[in-house]
Amino acid sequence: MSAPPAEGLVQQWESEQTRLRQQVLDHDTEDWQKSPVFSGLERVGGVDLSFIKGDDTRACAQLVVLSYPDLKLLYEDSRMVTLTAPYVAGFLAFRETPFLLEALQRLQQKQPRLQPQVVFVDGNGLFHHREFGLACHLGVLSGLPCVGVAKNLLQVQGVFKSEEHQSQIAALQKGGDSFPLTSASGKVLGKALRSSDKSFKPVYVSVGHRISLDAAVRLTLSCCRYRVPEPIRQADYRSREYLRSRFPAADSGSGE
């Protein structure tokens, strides 16, 4: 068990989140985002970190770029990294963003024509304690449109896994149905989306950067063959396979 971080570090991170939060754009900035069929969108990215089970510092940082709309693999980057920042709830981005950003920068240097036009992040965006989750952090620092898609509900700002929440999930009849994640103050921070007819458990979509919530939800749905959008699913799968091939004795686990 790692030691708790110094109070000064958490205060520094809070200040940095507040500063960067002011740069988030939660509206559509690209023409393709305003198209009903995302005309002009050709490349979608996905990022994820997978850890060796029992080791919370060594991980595989993964980037994939898929074609759109057929979701074929165009590019992948798998790299072992060592995380040095401590894990603190609400500050996951300070552990993971540097390595995901480096993967995007390597792509820009090696094959800039394959740079994704939007990046799916396995985590939250504005649906966060301070409205600045991993998808926002990566979006602001990379300058790319980002969408946060979480598999589990982050219970923040008055949104809880309550009976009401469960009844809202039960009311999602088909793929594409959704309901807003509304904070105690009345602000919509994201949406719970039933992403497939075959999946009863929703995903939680929120804006990362340079895209509206409506476009983020529509795009997430259009990228889902299964419950999780294909860019994130492929990033998760390929990072786990990378670990299995190098550490066959250890099971891998995906990051939060």
List the helices and strands and how they pair.
Layout lengths: L6 H15 L21 E10 L5 E10 L5 E10 L10 H18 L7 E5 L11 H9 L3 E5 L12 H8 L7 E5 L5 E6 L9 E7 L3 H10 L7 H17 L5 E3 L2
Parallel strand pairs: 1-4, 4-5
Antiparallel strand pairs: 1-2, 1-9, 2-3, 5-8, 6-7, 7-8
Helix pairs in contact: 2-3
Structure write-up:
The structure is a single chain. Helix 2 (93-110) runs parallel beside helix 3 (134-142). It is built from 6 helices and 9 strands. Strands 1, 2, 3, 4, 5, 6, 7, 8 and 9 form a 9-stranded mixed sheet that branches. The model has no long low-confidence stretch (mean pLDDT 94). The chain is globular. It has one domain (29-151, 168-254): 2-Layer Sandwich (archaeoglobus fulgidus dsm 4304 fold), CATH 3.30.2170. The protein is α+β, with helices and mostly antiparallel strands and 256 residues long. The protein has helices at residues 7-21, 93-110, 134-142, 163-170, 213-222, 230-246; strands at 43-52, 58-67, 73-82, 118-122, 146-150, 178-182, 188-193, 203-209, 252-254.
| Helix-and-strand structural type | alpha+beta
Spans of at least 5 consecutive residues with low confidence: none
Domain tally: 1
Fourth-tier CATH superfamily name: archaeoglobus fulgidus dsm 4304 superfamily
Gyration radius from CA atoms, angstroms: 17 Å
Average of pLDDT: 94
The CATH architecture can be given as 2-Layer Sandwich
Secondary structure tally: strands: 9
Q: Bin the helical content.
A: 25-40%
GO cellular component, one term: nucleolus
Pfam family, one: Endonuclease_5
Family: Belongs to the endonuclease V family.
Cofactor: Mg(2+)
